[in-house]
Design a protein that fits this description.
The protein has 645 residues and is an alpha+beta fold. It has 3 domains: 9-205, Aldehyde ferredoxin oxidoreductase, N-terminal domain (Aldehyde Ferredoxin Oxidoreductase,  A, domain 1), CATH 3.60.9; 245-432, Aldehyde Ferredoxin Oxidoreductase Protein, subunit A, domain 2 (Orthogonal Bundle), CATH 1.10.569.10; 449-640, Aldehyde Ferredoxin Oxidoreductase Protein, subunit A, domain 3. 39% of the residues lie in helices and 11% in strands. The strands form 4 sheets. Strands 2-1-6-3-4-5 form a 6-stranded mixed beta sheet, sandwiched between helices. A 6-stranded mixed beta sheet has the order 8-7-12-9-10-11. A two-stranded antiparallel sheet has the order 13-14. α2 packs across α21 (502-521) and α19 packs across α21 (502-521).
Length: 645
């Protein structure tokens, strides 16, 4: 019998309404583990080259992993993959909460969704049974309403729901999928892919928790986590203040993107900080009950990094929609020059109600604000709205237009800033911060130099959680904890700040491979990681072995990460992507403005081109950025060797 997983993958043919169960061998699970790597296997096997992202030919995969649902922190994650409607490249999206573990308990390790239903449906999974139900009555409902309706319809308050929202029904390209109405599978338009297939939701409930091979070893690891937490300052800050704990540090280091990435420091950083959020905005803050009421968690996790905001008045916020993460605070806050946390929290709710990615939405509005201030956009374009930095009400008004597609301007911005810039012209592209159609997250590659490389080469666009950040290895910041763990990956020495030489490229690549493995094992990068997290590489291997009964090493896990990256590059090569798309927007080569330690800093074309050469060599790619036959064969992926040509 398998440990940690069921050995069952559900294939959903929406066109025919057929559901079939595949039972792959153990070797398949050990090769791909789950998540993105496993999803890419099916996408490359079943999707024809050149398929339109919004056609029935697109293949959508939803995978947990061999460790999902185990009784330890940081394992309740789920990955969605399909061709992205934003870029035409591979789409990849992770989300947490309770849905991933519940999907596992429903009796399935993952879903492969093909075709298009003739009418809206939802997929109902319970204890090994699967059914398609009519979902026409859920059309137009915001996520909280739709989830409540499904719980009432199925007579169970404990079901978990992964759904697209009304924005996807309106064609917003950066539509996401949400569970719990506040856990977002965002970034690459997977919600829109769901809507294009008439798949409203996946609803799960189950009691089939897989057995683990070594319960005692897993329990020992699980107990060690809470003991380690108080001595890890990074984790203490994350637990108390959530991801917003980094607002003030980012500002002080000059890496808080401000006014659409024109500056690296925001004079009102304190007003949007994690400390401010904790003290004044979390549910129960007025009664001093944040720890009991204002912090949420994912299945079986001790960290409790999720925020819960509840507000009345002008910027009312319902607790069911959670609270803003750091990225949301950055994009709707400092990106837009907005200092009002209540308005930012309201923006977060609107995104979660309608199902859109907060990074893309906030950054697109910030781009429009810069265009307006430079005269590229006028009130004729905005419908009379003065779209200026710092105007919270204007920001919220535009967001409402985007998610409801209620105006021409809202529909234009709902295509993302890169496509909108092509429509507008007039130099609007000079204000872009996009990579492969994805707006840059709130970590600045001008100062975190390796991120410039990762933003460029990442197969699905700029992503801040596809590698470790420079501070973890840089002189003056890197701790003994960081360096002890990084040494296990072959990174024993600290590096100079603001560097992007061969050693920094090696750091970028090896930690990217590790993070890629995490996105196949579906482990939370705030708990399991190569440097600052609760558990490091050695504990990651030990946990996988305790759950599965295997004897994996860190090197074997790294091979899984490399498989995922290579399969993504194969997909992109098949769709016409190469080195030409591994590029940075013009803005990142212009000196940062304003004040702070990074004012005047810019990237150079020479260092990026040199870093690309070094990266491709390390990865085993051609000089044009494509996986080689030799590297694919080495990774056991000989079957994929012809697909990118």
């Amino acid at each position: 019998m398998p440990y940690g997983y069921h050995g069952k993958i559900l294939h959903v043919d929406l066109t025919r309404g057929q559901l079939t169960v595949e039972t792959p061998p153990e070797s398949f699970y050990r090769t791909y583990m789950g998540g993105s790597a496993m999803g890419l296997y099916y996408i490359l096997k079943e999707m024809p080259a050149g398929a339109d992202a919004l056609s029935a030919e697109n293949v959508l995969t939803i995978f947990a992993s061999v460790t999902t649902g185990a009784s330890i922190s940081g394992q309740s994650r789920v990955n969605m993959n399909a061709k992205s409607p934003l870029s035409g490249a591979i789409g990849d999206s992770q989300g947490g909460g309770f849905f991933p573990a519940e999907m596992k308990f429903s009796g399935f390790d993952g879903l492969v969704v093909t075709g298009k239903s003739p009418k809206p449906v939802y997929l109902w999974l319970k204890d090994g049974a699967a059914e398609l139900h009519n979902a026409s009555h859920l059309a137009g409902k915001v996520t909280g309403e739709a989830e409540a309706a499904l719980k009432q319809e199925l007579g169970d308050d404990k079901i978990e729901v992964l759904q697209h929202g009304p924005a996807a029904e309106k064609g917003v390209l950066f539509s996401s999928a949400l569970s719990m109405a506040n856990r977002n599978n965002g970034r690459t338009g997977m919600g829109l892919v769901m809507a294009s297939k008439n798949l409203k939701a996946v609803v799960v409930r189950g009691t089939q928790k897989p057995a683990v091979a070594d319960a005692k070893a897993l329990t020992a690891l699980n107990r060690s986590g809470p003991k380690l937490l108080p001595d890890n300052g990074d984790m203490v800050g994350l637990a108390k203040y959530g991801t917003a704990s980094v607002v003030n540090p980012q500002h002080s280091m000059g890496t808080l993107p401000t006014r659409n990435y024109n500056e690296g420091a925001f004079e009102f950083a304190e007003d949007i900080s994690g400390e401010k959020l904790y003290d004044e905005y979390l549910r129960g803050a007025a009664e001093g009950k944040q720890d009991k009421l204002g912090r949420d968690t994912c299945y079986s996790c001790v960290v409790r990094c999720k925020r819960v905001v509840e507000l009345e008045g002008k910027y009312a916020v319902d607790k069911k929609y959670g609270g803003p993460e750091y990225e949301t605070i950055g994009t709707f806050g400092s990106y837009c020059g907005v200092k009002d946390l209540a308005a930012i929290s309201r923006a977060n709710q609107v995104c979660n109600e309608y199902g859109v990615d907060t990074i893309a939405a906030g950054a697109t509005i910030a781009w429009a604000m810069e265009c307006f201030e430079k005269g590229i956009l006028t009130q004729d374009d905005t419908g009379g709205l003065e779209l200026k930095f710092g105007d919270a009400d204007a920001m919220l008004a535009v967001l409402e237009q985007i998610v409801t597609a209620s105006t021409d301007f809202g529909r234009l911005l709902g295509q993302g800033s890169e496509r909108a810039a092509k429509v507008i012209g007039r130099g609007a592209d000079e204000c872009l911060i996009t990579f492969k159609g994805a707006e840059a997250p709130a970590h600045m590659p001008q100062a975190k130099r390796s991120l410039a490389l990762i933003y460029a080469v990442n197969p699905f666009g700029a992503d801040h959680q596809s590698s470790e950040h420079d501070w973890m290895i840089e002189e003056g910041i890197a701790s003994d904890l960081y360096m002890g763990r990084l040494a296990l990956l072959g990174l024993p020495e600290t590096l100079a700040p603001l560097s992007l030489g061969a050693e920094k490229v090696k750091f970028a690549y090896l930690t990217e491979v590790f993070y890629s493995m995490l996105d196949s094992l579906e482990l939370c990068q705030f708990v399991w990681g190569p440097a600052w997290t609760l558990y490091g590489p050695a504990e990651t291997a030990a946990m996988v072995n305790a759950v599965t009964g295997w004897d994996v090493t860190v090197d074997e896990l790294m091979a899984v990460g490399a498989r995922r990256l290579n399969l993504m590059r194969v997909f992109n090569a098949r769709e016409g992507f190469d080195r030409r798309q591994d590029k940075l927007p013009k803005k990142f080569f212009r000196a940062l403005q304003g004040e702070g330690p990074t004012a005047g800093i810019a990237l150079t074309h020479e260092e990026i081109e040199s870093a690309l050469d070094d990266y491709y060599r390390l990865a085993g790619f051609t000089s044009d950025g494509k996986p080689t036959r030799a590297r694919l064969t080495e990774l056991g992926l000989a079957w994929a060797a012809e697909l990118g040509n």
